[in-house]
Amino acid sequence: MLAIMAGISVANLYYCQPLLNMIREDLSLSEFQVNLVPVFTQVGYALGLLLIIPMGDLYNRRKTILLSFAACILSLLAISNSSSILTLLAASFVTGFCSVTPQVFMPFASLYSRPGEKERKVGIILTGLLIGILGSRVISGYVGHLFGWRSMYIIASALIGLSAIDIFLWFPNVEATYKGRFISLMTSIRRLAIEHPKSLLYSIRAAFCFGSFLGLWGCLAFRMKEAPYFVGSDVVGMLGICGMAGALTASNVGKFIPRFGTEKINHLGLILQTIAWVILALFHNSYIGLIVGILIIDIGMQCIQLSNQSGTMKLCPEASSRMNTIYMVTYFIGGSFGTFLAGTLWSLYGWYGTIAAGLLMIGGALATMKIFK
Question: What is the pTM for the complete model shown?
Answer without folding.
Answer: 0.81
